[in-house]
Amino acid sequence: MKIKKILNNNAAVVSDHGEEKIVLGSAIAFQKGKNDIIDPTQIEKVFVMEDPAQYSHLREMLRTLPEEEIAVSQEIIAFAERELGVTFHEHIHIALTDHLSFALERIGKGISIRNTLLEEIRILYPREFQIGLQAKRMICEKLQVIIPEDEVGFIAIHIHTAWKNAGIRGKGQEKTAMIRDIAEGVGQAAGVVLDRRSANYERLLTQLENMLQTDESGNLHNELNPELVAIAKKNFAEAYAQARKIGDLVAEDYSYFFTDNQLVVIAMEINRVSTRLSKD
Q1: Which residues are paired to 175 by β-bridges?
Q2: Which pairs from 223-226 meet CB under 8 Å and 24+ separation?
Q3: What is the pTM of this model?
Q4: What are the beta bridge partners of residue 214?
Q5: Alpha-carbon Rg of the chain, whole angstroms?
């Protein structure tokens, strides 16, 4: 591989048998110049121009952002890939690095970072959140910046989305927000303000997450027996009507349409929360 352009000490645009690529590696371009040969043993990551817009964005990002920020972002991604046993799509190298740079800029200016989905992320995506906590330690060690847990949550969502895109596709942050809104609807229907740090809230989110799970063909994983659905609709008629109202709001906000099966699950959760409230 021959260097066409040096982006920073750790990144360069190269020509590989006439094909342009971006290569990353610690000090891979240090004290090198145009037309010098890259040592292949130093290469840690290679990017090929599949999407010209993303490739151009990556190239500009590597040229302009601080090298230490890029390096720590790559370390976080590599750690996440090892922990989860996957290879992420190249997009996360742009998305996470861009996000992290902007977050660090805000922290440096004293602007607070607030993540309204923090508790839901912590509950629904525990492995990704633990990776986010490790990212917090890496950032502190490498950049001497302490990021808040709200930012840990944002990093966890980036990791979750990349993990899903490495296998089953999914929109992590949108799905998390939808689950939160369903949970809030359940609480309102039951006449209670749910404690987002409680075991009951964690159980509710887990039930809703399971309710939404599908296979690669889009079929629901957890279908109830049709007879049980019919009985539940009759026995929990009021809760079912409230579940349909929640369904209307979700359809409007997220263009997601519940099945009868899912509406029954929500109705049963409304009934459970309401029954528990009356006993407390």
Answers
A1: none
A2: 223/261, 224/261, 224/264, 224/265
A3: 0.70
A4: 220
A5: 23
